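Troubleshooting log. The previous run stalled partway through. Resubmitting the same two chains, unchanged.
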Amino acid sequence: MMGITQILYADIYRITKNKIVLLTLFIPQLLVLLLSYLQFENTISAAATGYDIWVIYSKDILMVLSFVLPLFAIVYPFVILENEHRHNGLRTHSILPLKMGNYFVSKLLLIWMFLVYTTIFSSLLLLIIGYIIGALFGIKEFVLYSPTIIGGFTVGILLISLFVSSVHLVLNIFFKNFLINTLPFLLILFPSFFLYNWKYYFLNIYSYPFRLMNSLQLDYVIINDLTSIICFIGLMLSLIIIRYLIPKCQYIWIN
Amino acid sequence: MDVYNIQNLSFSIKKKLIIDNISFLIKSPSIVGLLGPNGAGKSTLINLLTGVQTRYNGNIRFLNRNIRGNEIETKCEIAAILDHSSTYDTITVRENICYYIKLLNVKPKIGEDLLVEFELDSYKNHKVSELSSGYKQRLKIVISLLRSPTVIFLDEPWLALDPINASFLSKKINEICSVRKITFVVSGHDLSELDELCNHLIFLKEGRIVLDFYRKQGSEFMVHHVKKTTSLDDRFKNRFFIDTKKDLGLIINARTEELDGMEVICTEIYSLKELYFNLLTN
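Second attempt completed without errors. Output:
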């Protein structure tokens, strides 16, 4: 029987043949480079004010990333599952000697790998550029202050993105149509920017990244926030659903 | 050897009976043809036999073990090429093979040899979307052979194939069956190909088996058994064979004799097309 590692290994092989998907992995890093360049003047001039230089330098860049990374968490499940639906992959794989739960978990792990890669490397690039600017222009605040905003953002946005992607994987398994499984949620993502302080903000998972940005700027710890608890519990639940419950519904795509 | 022993198999979707209390045997190696009009239950039967669909009543034994509860073990021994594509058309032939080699954990050499055997090696760097229907079908067979299964299910394999590719496919199925001792279960509507290829034919109508018979190589049809419960109409019943599990090949000659207390009459030998229309048209 094929285990998750074997399925994941084969999935990675196949997805690396899709050059467009591979290119999207570098979009956040390109954004970081571009925005760092645009922030350059501000950063240099703000160095003398004595504020936390990491906040001044990275705040706007992180704000953009807090929009882009959840966007990826919505789009990657669509790209991966759409390819399966188009080639009747669910049905084809249901005849192979594998547990469908492992097949879906493999897809989830693949999406998570993409998200972890884009998030970690974007944050690392942000740090590296910050230290390089500090070294080149003798801004010692880059060393004096610790980059907690970037660290907090990375952990927080990862948790949120992984949860959002799990929800979208489930949606994409059951619904093939982009107009149903992806577009409405992309449209919700935009207004969510203004809804992070809404009374019932916890109902809208797409506002979590913006709430995260707000909390980081206000300097309180995101891990105590309700969003983190919801994301963590949601992640665990979605894993159980994907691994154990969804394979029991396979008659939907068999018939 | 019996690869499949199906007893009293029934299956319904939303209270609609799709497979209605059928029983039959599949011996190895053989090429079994599943015939029937659209909606007769052929694809559903394949889903049941492959262990994909498990909510059925009755008993399906595969290699002397019940497939319910042994779905993964069953799937290790079978391969299926269903009505829709099972290959990824945005990547090349070689990449498709490599994907399944990694997934199934088989030796790459097996894939390379099969590509040569099916004359696909010169197309290995072509995207699957660039291949003709015939070559796509060959690729699917190559993928199904990677695991050396005991049984391969083919759902309408000749669909959209030109006569040259259809003939190539039939020749290969025959060759694989006789050389590698792999049993094929083929469903389809191409009567001439099925006639040429199959040595065991099962006629399905509205989820029931109306005729199940074996054929000796190069000879006319020989009925193995037709169950009492079959829905042959009276006109046909009088002219053909009636119940027994004995081999009725001997009574193919036009004569009447008593068998198990029943009068068995055979006045004509039908071609597959005649049989199909007699049995399956209303």
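Takeaways: Residues 2-200 of chain B form a domain with the Rossmann fold fold (CATH 3.40.50.300). Residues 22 and 234 of chain B are 21 Å apart (CA to CA).
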